[in-house]
Amino acid sequence: MPAIVIIGAQWGDEGKGKATDLLGSRIDYVVKFNGGNNAGHTVVIGDEKYALHLLPSGILTEGVVPVIGNGVVIDIEVLFAELEALQARGLDTSKLLVSANAHVITHYHRTLDKVTERFLGKRQIGTTGRGIGPTYADKINRVGIRIQDLFDENILRQKVDGALDQKNHLLVKVYNRRAIGAEEVVDDLLSYAERLRPMVADTALELNRALDDGKTVLFEGGQATMLDVDHGTYPFVTSSNSTSGGASTGSGVAPNRIDRVIGIVKAYTTRVGAGPFPTELHDASGEWLRSKGFEFGTTTGRPRRTGWYDSPVARYSARINGVTDFVLTKLDVLTGLERIPVCVAYEVDGVRVDEVPVSQSDFHHAKPIYEEFPGWSEDISKARTFEDLPRAAQEYVLAIEELSGARISAIGVGPEREAIVVRHDLLG
């Protein structure tokens, strides 16, 4: 049975939760392998809308075991707030497993994130201020706090003391903020220990045994390819590996066990935060996409930057991730347009460039080269087969499929759970 990775193939907010939901009862485990509560999934089930930030979207599917892997950074307060919100709506969250090796976002990480971003002024990266970057930095610097540390008070106190020795100097002497007391941090973390204990597991062992037993495991990436710390538009990126390779390091499941990689792309493009975005629209078309697609952040509420479909970005994602299938979302948002531009290449300093430039300076100055396709006016939200789509919508899908480097196996035609056209089996 397969291990499947779902990743965002643009700058995030592509609708990865919908793709996870599409696989539904055919999945046994859903694993979040990177990121934290700095991004979110919105899943619509019937008349109910669920906004998830830290939890894997599989927690909404009965019978699925949701897993937070070692590659995630966890704000424990947010974790319990999300769990309590779902429980209040009658959902069973008892199957959740949390890696003992996942790192913990503390009060001082959130503080440092906010003051550092403000300190950057015009050079701000556009972080959510939720402590993600500083927590990953501590992880790499080997001064981080892990979930397992909450169950050894002496170790926890030593680690918090060591971390704050340096950070309080920075807060007080550079940022002119008050020092943070180690005791308040330790007490806060210890207050969650007993509630956490039943969820904590050796998740790498659990997942490998599940695959050995023929179970199907889905790895759900946070953020997206163009926000990957190594392969994205650095430094305007997240602090983790949100590409398919991150699924292995963030879960403890080897790459040779992964069977399929599903890339999620919108029928247009959006981005939150600063950084290059060649197809960005600053006109009425951009506002139209934002309004009709309701392009506001699930986590922050920030209006997203909007632009036309960028096929060099899709090809780049297909290559970096080894995409076997694309899921195209929000095709319905384009309904009503007479002509739909698609970026097929860039112009950089007067020269045509067909792929994403390796130089960030070149990418920042890249101008999109567009090819236009006929639009459609028919309502497509009830389409359930490819043939149900208007001819112009079919041709648009086929054109961007040819441009994007992998087959388009499913197409989202509305926000509802069942509003999807399946062309190819995502598990076959």
Task: Outline the structure in words.
The protein folds into 2 domains: 3-93 and 202-422, Adenylosuccinate Synthetase, subunit A, domain 3 (Adenylosuccinate Synthetase, Chain A, domain 3); 103-197, Orthogonal Bundle (Adenylosuccinate Synthetase, subunit A, domain 2). The chain has 428 residues and is of the alpha/beta class. The strands form 5 sheets. A 10-stranded mixed beta sheet has the order 9-7-5-2-10-1-11-15-19-20, sandwiched between helices. The longest helix has 22 residues, at 153-174. The protein has helices spanning 16-23, 76-88, 107-120, 132-140, 153-174, 182-190, 193-196, 203-212, 245-249, 284-292, 311-321, 360-365, 391-404, and strands spanning 3-8, 29-32, 41-45, 48-52, 65-68, 73-74, 97-99, 103-104, 200-201, 217-220, 260-266, 269-271, 305-307, 309-310, 325-329, 339-348, 351-353, 367-374, 407-412, 420-422.
Helix-strand blueprint:
Blueprint: E1 3-8, H1 16-23, E2 29-32, E3 41-45, E4 48-52, E5 65-68, E6 73-74, H2 76-88, E7 97-99, E8 103-104, H3 107-120, H4 132-140, H5 153-174, H6 182-190, H7 193-196, E9 200-201, H8 203-212, E10 217-220, H9 245-249, E11 260-266, E12 269-271, H10 284-292, E13 305-307, E14 309-310, H11 311-321, E15 325-329, E16 339-348, E17 351-353, H12 360-365, E18 367-374, H13 391-404, E19 407-412, E20 420-422
Parallel strand pairs: 1-10, 1-11, 2-5, 2-10, 5-7, 6-8, 7-9, 11-15, 14-16, 15-19
Antiparallel strand pairs: 3-4, 12-13, 16-17, 16-18, 19-20
